[in-house]
Amino acid sequence: MTPKTNIGDMFDAENFRTSGHALIDVLADQLQRRLTGVGPVINWKSPELEDQHWQQPLPQQAIFNADDLINKLQSDILPDSLAIHHPRNMGHQVATPLPMAALCDLVAALTNQAMAVYETGPSATMIERQVIRWLSELIGWKPTITKHINGILTSGGAQANLTALLAARQHSAKSNVWKNGIADHKLLKILVSEHSHYSISRAAGIMGLGTDAVIKVATDIEGRMDVTQLQHLHQESLIKGEHIIAVVATAGCTPTGSIDPLLQIGQYCNTQGLWLHVDGAHGASALLSEQHRQQLDGIALADSVVWDGHKLLYMPATVSAVVFKNPANSFAAFAQDASYLFQGENHETEEFNTSYRTLECTKRMMGLKLWAALSLYGVEGMALLIDEAFAKARLFADKIQADQAFELLMQPQTNIVCFRYLNDGLDAENLNLLQATIRKSLIESGAFHLTQVTLHGATWLRTTLMNPMTQASDLDALLTSIKQFAKN
Ligand SMILES: Cc1ncc(COP(=O)(O)O)c(C=O)c1O
């Protein structure tokens, strides 16, 4: 029998302490098991069948106490989660989060700093500004020790890209689009690589430009934007009387991890007066690494950069930065009149009120975990993670190339490796089907998590090697399992 609920118990600090210790014990045990590869990567169950277990009546009274909750987590919920820290988890670009950063997220949850304006999150605001200054310094923009900060943290790279493109449009369009709408601006376009993330065309849709406003630039065999084609398409667009609001370069494109030639693109954009946005959601973290940062040469020429912490900065989701070279542009995306929140009208007065610059009003205190990680491990420590992930991708590529059963799509530029199992007896369509079937079987077996991507009609298996626990033996085991599954 669970006792009747009372408000005092709901907020009891001692209960919180006791349950908190018990919960951390459960999580630490699970972390340990997963780091050492105990159990499946995914406890695969059909979503249709699982859904039937989550159709309970709405509880009118308590149905369990805190201990029951922890037991439920331990018995059902945690075992049925994707084992992100498992060495054989090689699927999406989702960080294996640093445990200390996860603890910071608990602080964010309990203190619940709404962050819309300074007074709803004084220290949270300051920490966020500190993080933005650090990221800007890594990009190569002069550290802003002045009052004016040049960006914000927001929930996810998709939203960060939208924010940057709204700013780009407001900056480049000939009149105030925020206020007057786009009726007078039918020909606003965005130039972007064919491998750009879908959030760019989705942003075009949201912004009322229509997804057809996104002009796709072809890539070379290494998946990088072809700069000659970019120039050609830009000139063609000028002849048609179109107005390019931004060129979007991708640093670490989603399908292959390729990094567009930022220096060449930046030089072209700068001479043509084009806004350059770099979607570095995945790859901007290479800036931390002495070994790999030269791949991002030219990023400082950008007008705006997006950088996800919950990818290669090893943060729990979500924390994404959108930063602008010119601090004034950080106000360009949104211009709101809400006297219940903002008492000032100008940027000077609203400098410390983050919601002037974000889509979000209430916003999680997401800078804390990033500030903590950079403080605990420094750039050098965080770079170890990048170097390790990129080296593992190269090692895996070498293993694939050395095995005649497989074809490697391209040498990895970051930590994403695409490859396929070969079978001479199959036509193109069935070879594609085989990759998809192998992947499905591997996931449903619980042995590995990996993804797939279709490029120019060919389906490739895709691994994102960002789990520091993955060893060479796990990569060998993946190739062996693929061969076995293919034979079966
Ligand atoms: C290049 C790129 N940009 C943007 C995004 C979207 O980021 P988020 O999932 O944080 O919204 C992704 C996600 O994979 C990405 O790879």
TrEMBL record:
Domain of life from the UniProt record: Bacteria
Q: Name one GO cellular component term.
A: cytoplasm
Give GO terms for biological process: amino acid metabolic process; carboxylic acid metabolic process
Please name the GO terms that the record assigns under molecular function. carboxy-lyase activity; pyridoxal phosphate binding
Which residues are recorded as modified (N6-(pyridoxal phosphate)lysine)?
311
| Names of the cofactor(s) | pyridoxal 5'-phosphate
Q: Which UniProt keywords apply?
A: Decarboxylase, Lyase, Pyridoxal phosphate
> Which family, according to the similarity comment?
Belongs to the group II decarboxylase family.
What protein name applies here?
2,4-diaminobutyrate decarboxylase
